[in-house]
Design a protein that fits this description.
- With about 210 residues, the protein is of the alpha/beta class.
- It is built from 8 helices and 8 strands; from the N terminus they run αββββααβαβαβαβαα.
- The protein has helices at about 10-15, 55-60, 80-85, 100-110, 125-135, 145-160, 185-190, 195-205, and strands spanning about 20, 25-30, 35-45, 50-55, 95-100, 115, 135-140, 165.
- The longest helix is centred in the C-terminal third of the chain and has 13 residues, at about 145-160.
Amino acid sequence: HSLTSSVKADLIQEYEIGFDRTRKRVVFPIRNHRGELVALSGRTVNGDWPRYKIYKKELSEIVSDYSFDKKSVLWGLEKFYDTMMYTDIDIDMPVIVCEGFKAALWVVQSGYPYTVALLGSYLSREQEALLSRITNKVVLFLDNDSAGRKAMYRISKEQLSGVEKRIANYRDHADLSPDDLTTQQVHAAIETALTPINWRRSFYYE
């Protein structure tokens, strides 16, 4: 499907992306930082609403007392959490923070394996604690629309204290997301990421 057509098959397999034939949705497993499966999200392929749906009722039918709070996880973190927490490897690469699954997958495929998705444009306290625990460098690569820019403004000013924050350089004010960019543009956006003050001057004329 077009949702994952640009993502390589081995990456789709690694992230265990499937398809719900009954509900006609591309299914993304959601695991916590320990790798435990905590939720499933389905993305419609035929225009149903909502476009993305966290499966709740569907899972409560087979898992008693099932509940899930998306603010408690960073999607994709389980892929490298142990590496950053428990090894002596000096990892100089920043953690890239995106909004959604497809954007994060595209950034990973573009050569940045330490990439997570917030499952939205809001960085919760739980997610903030997870990031602060594993890294001292992040690049905020949220969508370049109004909601994404407001979130990057808030995070860069008020959150992740003690962490070096940079903001992906989209180079213009177009409403784009990471997966709208070519691989070369993703590299450029990350490698020329702006300091928060320079980014705010560009977008908010501070």
